[in-house]
Amino acid sequence: SKFMPQPRSDFTSPIYRVRVAVPVYLHDCFDYQVTADQYDQAQIGARVAVSFGRQQLTGIITEKLPLDTPINPAFKLKMITELLDDQALLNAPMLKLLTWSAQYYQFPIGEVMHAALPAILRQGKPYNLLARNWKVTDLEAENKLSKNAIKQREAFKILKLHPKGTLENILNLSGIETTTLKALEKKGFVQCILEAQDFTPEPVQLSQMPLTANDEQKKAIHSILKAHNKYQAFLLDGLTGSGKTEVYLQIMHKVLEQGKQVLVLVPEIGLTPQTISRFQSRFHCNIALLHSGLNDTKRLQAWQYAQTGKASIILGTRSAIYTPIANLGLIILDEEHDLSFKQQEGFRYHARDVALYRGYLENCPVVLGSATPSIECYHLADQNKLTRLELNQRAGNAVMPKMHLIDLKIAKKQHGISEQLISEIKKRLEKKEQVLIFLNRRGYAPVVLCESCAWQANCPHCDAHFTLHMKPYSHLHCHHCGTINRVPDACPQCNQKNLKPIGLGTAKLEEGLNELFPDFPVLRVDRDSTSKVGSWQKIYDQIQKSEPTILLGTQMLAKGHHFPYVTLVAILDIDGGLLSVDFRAPERTAQLITQVSGRSGRGDKKGDVYLQTLRPDHPMLNLLLEKDYRAFAKQTLSDRQLALLPPCRYAILIRCESRSQDENQNFLSTMAQQLRQQSEEGLIDIWGPIPAPMERKAGRFQAHMVLLSTHRAKLHFYVQPWWQHLLHIKSSTMKITIDVDPQEFS
């Protein structure tokens, strides 16, 4: 093999070796030779440049091998190319966390460690980048700026307050864009100076007095603070609008006072602007922001601020759980139930579960917050692995909204909205209140149908319909494989020009709402309307004004946002979640209904929720209507225990993809038989193999096999060597993936 070390001829001189995690799809670390000086300088957790086959790669030192470690005389080790760091980038707890993650999620250790570094460091570039510091050069420039240059005038006012200059990332956090600064620089009013970065931590100051906590909040705050400097996991189970954020802020303040850092994870980038503003209004400290929307330089700088201790608060999405933090004192994971915390491609980790293990390694409390906790968290609470804290009253005078069911089988509709609901929406808008309409389907229409012969526009590569989109131009788009086709002028099957969009997407509903309520603005919030940088922030700012508005959107509107002027929420199409084959679909649907409903009545005015459905008699809907989400969760957990479904058993999903379903089925059947023979009898229950719910995707066939067991450690013990054997014997045209603790079976 081209990767095999070459034979050695010299056995006399001592061999200095380091073990390196290399970013390749192999589950081992590799030994490399170093000089005596390099051995002394090498730091565990630092980067090295190495040759691997014909590639030059950046690896992480995981071990310095003692000189008396036995050597295989048949092989000569390669020398490392270069030591890239004189200090460790990943400390001991981080290396333990990454090693555990690689083992638990059955993913190559080198790839896992590589993913924990920012792109610039993965490329082997120097750690010390110069910081961009902006200073005013013309103190009278404000008088020379046009009155219409609002952003430039605001940026200039802030810069004038800092005669020694301000770092670009701090200005960005304050809402000043780099393009605005460059525009001022072009006019000669400011200048950018590159300076060596200062990573010295700064003291934290409280800038706004905390709100007075109610009795439930006080109890939660006291319980969590008792666990400082030790690991304890909490489930903050609070109704929507019950003040979970205030609990976070008050426990954060105590942790920051001790000189420690706080890691806060949120499910979506869209939640970070409002979260930052809450933090900035309460604390004067450095905040490192980590999410996929940052460019490489800004991501590296935020990562460095966390790693060196300069940032007191680290706020990020899922991947931020793998950020090294100098002095971690608290982990908060908000909206813990959200599916966004589970990585669905490649390294399929769950940030919630990794957060719990990281808290254990770092001896710090972990707080999981949600108004609709996952069934997994209720199960952990029942096992006393989580301490459950409840918040049952909404902040201020707000009360929980009243829910109403509308039976679509008998209701008269316009543009997919019942006449009863149209009347209610009109009343709210006339009272100068806001209305939120939820439809979890973006695009214009989910199906294009020929009325003459019933032909449907299907994706040629997937078992799925094309979705019709009208912007930026009329086109058909497959949301599964990304294929885009033009809309045919006539039916390809019968050549008639009777093609009609069927069903309702957010773009089509937006047209209908503009027709029904022409005097009021309609703000659409979905992945299409918020794809441009800053577009969501503009919409969010407009929502915060107390003006009558219709908010229309998908799940983006359901996630933790505070809309104080919304008094009516309408949920238009939830039936798909009630009829899905996925056993988790009812849980996701109940969470969605509860979360969307929680956007209503958060201010002083009473809220209402209208739910349109073809199944008003569905037991889940009636349980939510008559009781609440907690009653639903209790019943669901009981059902799962009877059916021996997760979380009452541990699951691993094997996905197989190839050019034929027979190839998938034959391969997985053979491997299932091997696993049965190699493991204890009755330990592992194997379901499948069966075709995936979407059998054909992107032109290839998909099959699933699920492994279930009540013994997690034994399940992993037997699956690990079996899985690595699968990777070695599969054909080159077949793709197989492993998903530990899967959240979706599609």
Account of the protein in words:
By secondary structure, the chain is α/β, with parallel strands linked by helices. A seven-stranded parallel beta sheet has the order 13-14-11-15-16-10-17, sandwiched between helices. The chain has a six-stranded parallel beta sheet with strand order 18-30-29-21-28-27, with helices on both faces. Strand 15 (328-334), helix 13 and strand 16 (366-370) form a beta-alpha-beta unit. Helix 2 (92-104) runs antiparallel to helix 13 and helix 9 runs parallel beside helix 10 (244-257). The longest helix is centred in the last third of the chain and has 18 residues, at 661-678. The relative contact order is 0.08.
What's the overall average pLDDT, rounded? 89
| Backbone shape | globular
> Which percent bin holds the helix content?
25-40%
What oligomeric assembly is this protein in?
A: single chain
Give the amount of beta strand, in percent: 15-25%
Please sum up the structure shown.
With 746 residues, the protein is of the alpha/beta class. The two termini are 38 Å apart.
What keyword list fits this structure?
32% helix, 23% strand, 23 helices, 746 residues
Blueprint of the fold:
Layout: E1 16-21, E2 30-34, H1 36-41, E3 47-52, E4 55-65, E5 82-83, H2 92-104, H3 109-115, H4 119-122, E6 131-136, H5 141-144, H6 150-160, E7 166-167, H7 168-173, H8 178-186, E8 190-195, E9 205-206, H9 215-225, E10 233-238, H10 244-257, E11 261-265, H11 272-282, E12 283-284, E13 287-290, H12 296-308, E14 313-316, E15 328-334, H13 351-362, E16 366-370, H14 375-382, E17 387-391, E18 402-407, E19 413-414, E20 417-418, H15 419-430, E21 434-438, E22 447-450, E23 467-469, E24 475-477, E25 484-485, E26 499-502, H16 506-516, E27 522-525, H17 535-543, E28 550-553, E29 566-571, H18 575-579, H19 585-597, E30 608-613, H20 619-626, H21 629-643, E31 650-658, H22 661-678, E32 685-697, E33 700-709, H23 712-729, E34 735-740
Parallel strand pairs: 10-16, 10-17, 11-14, 11-15, 13-14, 15-16, 18-30, 21-28, 21-29, 27-28, 29-30
Antiparallel strand pairs: 1-2, 1-4, 3-4, 3-5, 6-7, 6-8, 9-12, 19-20, 22-26, 23-24, 24-25, 31-33, 31-34, 32-33
Helix pairs in contact: 2-13, 6-8, 9-10, 19-21, 22-23
